Amino acid sequence: MKNIILSIFLSFTLLGCAEKKEAPKAVVADTSAGKAIAERSCKGCHGMDGGGAAPGIPHLAAQRERYLLASIAEYKDGKRTHAALKDMTANMSDPEVRSVVAYYAGLPPVANAAAKDIHLSSPYQEGKALAAPCANCHGEDGNSKTPGTPSLAGQQPHYLVTAIEEYHQGDRKAAVMGSKLRGSKNMDLEKIALYYASQTPAQRPAAKIGDPAAGEPATAMCGGCHGARGVSTDGATPTLAGQDATYLVNSMKAYKKSRQNWGMQRYIAGLSDKDIENIAAYYSIQKSNPSDVVPATIKELVDKCNRCHEAADNPTMAIPKMNGQDRDYLVMSLRSYREGKRQSTMMHNMSFAYSNAMIESIASWYASQPADKH
Ligand code: HEC
Ligand code: HEC
Ligand code: HEC
Ligand code: HEC
Fold first, then answer.
1. Number of folded domains in the chain?
2. CA of 221 to the centre of ligand 3 (A)
3. Are 250 and 308 in the same domain?
4. What is the pTM of this model?
5. Distance between CA atoms of 284 and 305, rounded to whole angstroms?
6. Among 236, 259, 284, which residue terminates a domain?
7. Which of 15, 46, 329, when mutated, tests ligand 1's pocket best, judged by the most ligand atoms within 8 Å of its CB?
8. Does 88 contact ligand 4 (Cβ within 6 A)?
9. Dihedral sign from CA coordinates of 268, 146, 160, 353
């Protein structure tokens, strides 16, 4: 399939080259010249109506001209990597680019026929359903009342996924958790993690073990990673504030025996049993909150995105419209920003906290919206 597409468009490019020599210089932004270029070189993938011909190909119809021009410039200079588009656009003159962009930008938006088939999902709702069997031990809302069983409410979502994987890989040994969720899709683990991360941790009463006042100074070197008073702001590092004290003691001791983690094994090595109890007593009574990487709802999140994406065309920034855009294309571009494969510091910062489950939900939401008119 890839080869077919490649050869089709290679022949388009060659055709384009041959014609360029004879054709008179195109007038700047000549939409009928643009239409001819689209017919020749773009139709196979973007259609004559500007609708992506297959999942993963963006719709161009009614997209902002400024943004389309900026993206083609990025393919040309290699800031955005797509081998086919780089080759194709390398051979196009400025007036040709302007014309084909004017043609696509001027089309009415494509009816997003697929919208009704898009399954609108909220990772929180799905995560809540998936987490139902955990409530017996971890508490209905992730606040455990059983000594030795950790609370999951407000915990960092990346950490929760890692923790479950560690049980499966045997890096952590706990008979009760070892077989749970084995064989689950990673996406499901992420949904469970998002659900718990968004729950509010309960304030705990003083623990029956240890002395919190003696514990506080012993945590001096822990805060760099676990955050002030044990409220972590890093996705991979667990929050300790508000955690069950018995569990904290058990987990610290586990690093001395069976639990594998290069850093933690060293930080704990020098602590006495008394230190460990005091530290646990201190952290368990600290106030925690829902993880800050988790916005409450997709709608709330999207409102944040729309401050840029739905704003009137911004003369200083090339910002694409997203309503009605192809879902797979949106998923792909958000992942590329997150992983730094598509360059945009702004969008990297925006997307890097999001799990795949979150990205799928955002993309589904935008794809299901009616596309904006001009
Ligand atoms: C072989 C299929 C193919 C052909 C032919 C093709 N494109 Fe694309 N186009 C794509 C794909 C796939 C992407 C998304 C690539 C990415 O991830 O950056 C894309 C992205 C774009 C984008 C960026 C859109 C956005 O929302 O960021 C523009 C603009 C574009 N193409 C214009 C054109 C023009 C103009 C032509 C004809 C000269 C053309 N393309 C021909 C497949 C194609
Ligand atoms: C029968 C009781 C029980 C059930 C049911 C249970 N767990 Fe656990 N879970 C535990 C105990 C006990 C631990 C602590 C084990 C240890 O010391 O490592 C734990 C640990 C965890 C941890 C590690 C937390 C941390 O701070 O490192 C995660 C994540 C977790 N469970 C998720 C789940 C999920 C998700 C479910 C539901 C699919 C679930 N558990 C069902 C008892 C249970
Ligand atoms: C360099 C960063 C770093 C420092 C410093 C650090 N930790 Fe950790 N800690 C981590 C990471 C990362 C994990 C998760 C490791 C894993 O997956 O087992 C962790 C895990 C833990 C856990 C297990 C939590 C759970 O939910 O299972 C406890 C308890 C803990 N740390 C306590 C401490 C204490 C006490 C100190 C200071 C003496 C400390 N840590 C210092 C990074 C750090
Ligand atoms: C401060 C303004 C701003 C905010 C807020 C913002 N974006 Fe963007 N977004 C941009 C700009 C600028 C681009 C174009 C970057 C480039 O050239 O690759 C972009 C590009 C994108 C693209 C690529 C679309 C395409 O057609 O290729 C997606 C997807 C996207 N943003 C999603 C989001 C989501 C989801 C959010 C909210 C979590 C968000 N953006 C918030 C400014 C913003």
1. 3
2. 11
3. no
4. 0.70
5. 36
6. 284
7. 46
8. no
9. negative
What is the structure's pLDDT at 123? Answer: 80
Tell me if 315 is assigned to some domain.
Answer: yes
| Domain interval for residue 38 | 1-110
Which of 267, 274, 275 best tests ligand 3's pocket when mutated (most atoms within 8 Å of CB)?
267
DSSP class per residue in 198-237: TSPPPPPPPPSSS-HHHHHHHTTTTHHHH-GGG---STTS
Q: Which atom of ligand 3 is nearest to the CA of 172?
A: 18
Flag whether 102 is in a domain.
yes
CATH of the domain at 178: 1.10.760.10
CA distance 98 to 72: 10
Q: What is the per-residue pLDDT across 96-154, written as a single tens digit (0 to 9) for each?
A: 999 999 999 999 998 875 556 666 677 888 899 999 999 999 998 999 999 999 999 99
The verdict on 179 and 88 lying in the same domain is no
Tens-place pLDDT, residues 226-255 = 999 999 988 889 999 999 999 999 999 999
Question: Within the chain, which residues score under 70 in pLDDT?
Answer: 1-28, 113-120, 292-296, 374
